[in-house]
Specification:
This is Nitroreductase. InterPro entries: Nitroreductase-like. This protein has 13 helices and 10 strands. It folds into 3 domains: 109 residues, 3-Layer(aba) Sandwich (NADH Oxidase); 103 residues, NADH Oxidase, CATH 3.40.109.10; 79 residues, no CATH class. The chain is of the alpha+beta class. 40% of the residues lie in helices and 16% in strands. The structure holds flavin mononucleotide. Flavin mononucleotide binds next to helix 3.
């Protein structure tokens, strides 16, 4: 039975990306379907109050499940059925056909977010391929012209992020800046994934611990400056834009699109470094919308994209293969 066999693929499905690597998805195996929902403790109410990134992450998980299942020869489909009150994104059900995808489980396993240096941005053909993926669902992928101009917006967004104690406390709760952290191998953002040296990780830990005292003395500005300018590390900035009238259900659908775009980039030897702060902050989201001539609520995801100079560290997952969390 395809649904039962699907259960064994959990560790591969869990390689899906999620904001802050919270892995918010929860699967509930029922006799004739698998319910895809989410765990409130693994959402980001401060950093993601609208739930946009939660829904994108759920969609990315669904797409990952479908790719992994298809690669294993299982026939699954997704039936979207978003209901916030029931914390439900939809259902994975048996299908008469295998899911039609150009991607495979090996690509799911080797794709990763890359926050380091890029030697080049995507060729126009790759941007066109990513755009074609989004267009198939009524959206588009656009490269920001003269992305260097975004540096000022990024600085403003970082400053605003670090000025909000709730956002900083939440970020801190998902940071894993030392291998002795009990959840270092389970979830969150590790020092290695963030590309921090031992000294930088220690300094960040100390600064965040002192945040309540140092915040009025200008720590947010200092933290924003310390994050540096990711745009100086190369690549181009791509924006995923949803159709007019984008709503919660569209976010889940576009999480699937986002996963397909990232796998398209990965297949071309490229990687993405999301810069969500640009659209999490109202002022910079509006500025980016004006720059692109698009209503700001249609901006779903922003990332620096390019050809990595070196490998990125693999991120942790809560599910190591024991089936835990995969009811
Ligand atoms: C919707 C979404 C938003 C994200 N936003 C950011 C971001 O703003 N900055 C960042 O460095 N990574 C961001 N990420 C990347 C996640 O941190 C990353 O997927 C997670 O840590 C797992 O790592 P992996 O992608 O290498 O598997 C985002 C991912 C998703 C799915």
């Amino acid at each position: 039975m395809d649904l039962a066999a699907f259960r064994a693929l959990a560790p591969l499905c869990w390689r899906a990306p999620s904001a802050h690597n919270t892995q918010p998805w929860r699967l509930d195996h029922q006799p004739d379907a698998v319910r895809v929902g989410w765990e409130p403790a693994h959402t980001l109410p401060a950093a993601d109050p609208s739930g946009r990134d939660l829904r994108l992450s759920l969609g990315a998980f669904v797409e990952t499940c479908l790719v992994v299942a298809a690669d294993a020869g299982l026939r699954l489909r997704f039936v979207a059925d978003h209901c916030a009150a029931d914390r439900r994104a939809g259902w994975l059900r048996a299908s008469p056909h295998r899911y039609d995808t150009p991607f495979d489980a090996a690509q799911v396993l080797t794709r990763r977010t890359h926050r380091g240096r890029f030697s080049a941005g995507p060729d126009p053909e790759v941007v066109a391929a990513a755009d074609a993926v989004a267009r198939a669902s009524g959206g588009t992928v656009r490269a920001v012209p003269e992305a260097g101009r975004l540096a000022r917006l990024l600085r403003a967004a970082d400053r605003q992020t670090y000025a909000d104690p709730a956002v900083v406390a939440e970020l801190r709760s998902w940071l894993r800046l030392t291998p002795t952290h009990p959840d270092y191998h389970a979830d969150g953002l590790t020092d290695r994934c963030l590309g921090l040296s031992g000294r930088e990780a220690t300094a960040l830990r100390a600064a965040l611990a002192a945040y309540p005292v140092l915040r009025p003395l200008g720590l947010p500005r200092l933290l924003a400056a310390a994050s540096g300018n990711p745009l100086a590390r190369g690549g181009a900035v791509l924006v995923l834009i949803g159709p007019p009238g984008t709503d919660d259900a569209t976010h889940v659908e576009f999480g699937r699109v986002l996963a397909r775009v990232w796998l398209t980039l990965h297949a071309a030897g490229l990687a993405a470094h999301p810069l969500s702060q640009l659209i999490d902050t109202a002022a910079t989201r509006d500025a980016l919308g004006s720059l692109l001539g698009v209503a700001s609520e249609r901006l779903l995801h922003v990332a620096r994209v390019g050809r990595p100079v070196g490998p990125a560290a693999p991120s942790a997952r809560r599910l190591g293969g024991s089936g835990q969390g995969f009811r």
